[in-house]
Amino acid sequence: MTTIVVGGHFGDEGKGKMVSYLAVKDDVDVVARAGVGPNAGHTVYHEGRQYGLRMIPCGFVQKKARLYVGAGVLVDPTRFLEEVKLTGTQERIFLDPRCAIIEDKHKKQDTSDAHLKELVGSTGSGCGPANAERAHRTIRLARDIPELKPYLADVPSKLNHALDGGQSVLLEASQGFGLSLFYGTYPYVTSKDTSASMAAVDVGLGPTKIREVIVIYKAYTTRVGEGPMSSLITEDNIKKYPMWQQVLDEARKKGIEGIDVNDTLARYFKEWGVVTRRKRRVGAFDLELARYSAMVNGATGICITCLDKLFPECESVKEYGKLSERAKEYVKKLESGIKVKAVLLSTGPQLDDVVDLRKN
Ligand code: IMP
Ligand code: MG
For residue 17, which of 69, 61, 55 has the smallest C-alpha distance? Predict the structure, then answer.
């Protein structure tokens, strides 16, 4: 059956790392990429190298897995071909012929249109203009691009066939719930829905083919680009959060001092975008958004990442019992607030820096 991994806040929850962990740990046969397109930036550490992937599935680290990019995903052909080469996945990666193509004109529009660039704070990767053109029904598709011919495959047929044969499929979404065109903080959102159901549509899987939906949250909330963030930490409200005051003190002890409190925290946590290098705003865990997101996504389990950034003593811990008391308390508080069990905790950037709470 299928497991979907989806972001529960504003993207950058650490999906890339968790997908690569699951792909290897669960010995998956197939990894499929859903989501918007190359506006996503997923970081994967593998065999001593760091990869910043925008197009191909982070599950590529599972060497036996076949990799697919679903029809719902926008494809930037140059970027796609570069990443295929970078990861050496030529023989096992496929695109749906119906993927819509991002061209230079979309990128130009995305970076020159004041509404998109300044109000929305787009990544400039051309996704918004391309999805608009797709809805206008004039965009070119992957089947129209000769360089992509060797990679084309009917993704829904491949995935459904794999499932019929008892194989496992890991489905990786992009962005996060708060950026959903339908359910996010409109108009400060991306150009498509970002929930688990959409991810299934992106690759052509029906709702009955999904067994698990793992919603990923970072231990604190971040947001890049424009738009509201109700849990933003500022000079004025940090006193309300003793834990955050402690984090700030920790940062200052290390000699980190930004232009304001939030900047200091972003520097301490190294919160910069993979795609745009923009600094992310830092907030306390947005529990209300997390609960709503788990509901709409139909979460069967949640995953909390970057636990080590909030609780440095937990770095690289792989057993629940070895986590600090305050970290365990924190996870329990999130579980009971979201009302979904934590199945995975991430304690560092390396693939196996994980506390796996799933049975067996
Ligand atoms: P667009 O998707 O490039 O049009 O950007 C729209 C909004 O979504 C902007 O605020 C971006 O910063 C945000 N966004 C898009 N993709 C990601 C992502 O992968 N991580 C975090 N934010 C994103
Ligand atoms: Mg990202």
Answer: 61
In the set 9, 29, 42, 308, the catalytic residue is 42
Note the ligand closest to the C-alpha atom of 118. 1
Q: How far is the CA of 216 from the centre of ligand 1 (A)?
A: 17
* Ligand 1 site, CB within 6 A: 10-12, 36, 39-41, 120-123, 125, 127-128, 174-175, 179, 188, 190-191, 224-227
Residue 12 annotated among the catalytic residues of the structure = yes
pTM value > 0.90:
yes
Q: Who contacts 323 (Cβ-Cβ below 8 Å, separation ≥6)? A: 307, 311, 314, 317, 331, 345, 347, 355
Contacts (Cβ under 8 Å, ≥6 apart) of 5: 15, 18, 19, 22, 170, 171, 172, 173, 214, 216, 303
Ligand 1 centre distance from Cα of residue 190 (Å): 6
How much distance in Å is there from the Cα of 13 to the middle of ligand 2? Answer: 7
Question: pLDDT tens digit string along 179-238?
Answer: 999 999 999 999 999 999 999 999 999 999 999 999 999 999 999 989 999 999 999 999
Residue 173 has pLDDT above 70, yes or no: yes
42 is catalytic: yes
